[in-house]
């Protein structure tokens, strides 16, 4: 265990990344527990206010992210300062991304359906950092041999091809596959080959005069969403809490 730790974490300089990931996940989990207790009216916790203004935890999150980021840039990669900065940065990032939906909508949508985006972004971020920690590098550079790495043209070509495949998957409406494809190119390749989602830019451009392709894309998207929407919502509710029910809108009055 000690040999593996030294060879795979200490020597490559991955300890700050590991500490940042651990503090990021731990901060998010603790934050969600606290806000769910506040929501349920349990425990000694309460909303932070200053002069009647509700201070969202994205505010201290931004401060910690800035401190940790600049601290990491200005410290030695293998020193104690780098490790401390990584922990501070991870804590700040956890607080910020926990309210990603608030930043996106510029509205307090924490317990609404839109608030699910925060949980999704946190899970995706943790997964991507975990892949990098495991040895995967963006655009598949880790798949190149030593001779290929020394050839700058080969590296640039590999990055360009992988980036293009990720963009193709994104244009087909496969955002998650495109994001993960930046780290694992095979994922983006699968998304680029498969049918585009019916509302994607690719479908609007290339399926416009192909009714059979449009119908097939709609059918596949319907079955995919029906199969995975329920499990995805339950997973998000387990991590972040169930959103508030949508208010019932009254029917318009008859004239």
Automatic annotation (TrEMBL):
This is Integral membrane protein. Keywords: Membrane, Transmembrane, Transmembrane helix. Residues 234-255 are annotated as: Disordered. The chain crosses the membrane at residues 15-35, 55-74, 80-106, 118-141, 153-170, 177-196. The keyword Membrane applies. The keyword Chloroplast does not apply.
